[in-house]
Give the backbone structure.
Amino acid sequence: LTVDGRMDPGGETVTRLRHDIGEDFASHSAPDHRTVIDHHERLARGEEGPLFTRPKSLGEIVAKNATETVDHDTERSNRQAARYLHDREDLGDHPRFAAEAIKQAGAKGIGEVRDLVAKLFQNNPERGDRYAYDVAKQLDPEQRNAFLGSAEAWDNRPFGVPKDNAPPPKKEETESKEQPQELQAGKGTADPVPLDPAQPTDPTPFQAANAEPQADLADSDGGSGGDDTSQEDKEAAKTDGKKAAEDNAQNTPNAPANAKSETEEKPVTKKTPQGTVTVYPIKAEALAARTEPKSGEVGTTFQDKVGGIEVKGEPNHGYGVKLEDNQGGVALGRYQLKRGALIDAGFKDKDGNWTDKARALGVDSEESFLKSPKAQDAAMDAYMTKVDGYIRHLGLDKQHGREFIGVMGTNIEVTQSGLAAAIHRAGQGEVNAYFKHQAEQSWKIDRDPFPANKKELFLAIETRLREFQNVEYRKR
């Protein structure tokens, strides 16, 4: 602004305002400067002004509703994030990640995001207001009402427009609508998550969702490395699955359909936006065969955390889950291992056939692998041993102990556990690319730190580095 108080219609300030809030004001006319002056003069006299002003503080509303108890890690992460957001020039993509947390984690996500808003609002009410508004406007009506605590709290009219150009808030019909897919417990499950904070759920926490919105079983590369997966691998995966089904059919006696027990459990198949999920039943004795890892093996703490992210909400710890994604890839079991990971583990050869190592554990098909928790744990341990080799080969082990501030404003220390989890998520090639990019940027976080074509993947990698930095990796 120049000293005359006017803005150049084509200048930087107006251009930025149009980019940031143009959509909100698109259907409204702006007041002229005389109306604005009149508005403030009336307010000074204690009268009602001619302009519409937002009547409620969303930050205060959300902060008052932040009655849920969050775990220690979330509380600490939110405290750090609130300090980080307090000092930033703008909020960046953080509200979008928070909205994703609510979409993916339902009631638990709402509680964790509310806690962050409360902390931010306490130190900076204006910033807390803006954060709550930016989160709320990205949510569907059902999600938004649950986040704010009521439908009345939301007002979609932009403030600062003449009252005669500010019609009543739009009434959104929600009761007759089917609950959106985003409100379900996870992108790989079909059971909706209750949004009442009094009904707890156990999905991915906010720390994962706000920086890894695509980190559930549908997007995990299970060691195959994302873009490293060739079309030939995908086609081979399809063929392998088809062959397993044919083998099972050939080994089934030609008995009448009613000869089988009516109580015999069968695989359950469901369609999701990410692909087709099939869940195979697991026998109790097979689950009981899970044993504590031996010295030198990947520990249960690490395995359980990976499994909890990959197949959250699935029965039997997710051991029976098979995902066929929309691009033709197949991921198997609790750890969502793909063909490349199973080859690295020595459970498949380069042609996609099950090896003697797999057969020694009773595995000769996808179904037998999915029904054997013991085999999956062994495959995961063998694959992570291969990952340890990738870490040394790429020189990533030289990053051990490095500390830096992540894009979410939290402290991260590079550890073997974090590196292993990141490679399991995105593949060794992408993790190496992430570290090269950070080195080129001198490990300094700016307003938009990652390349546009790598943004989501690099965020996912950084989330794994953060969430697994203190997780026990291998038994000593």
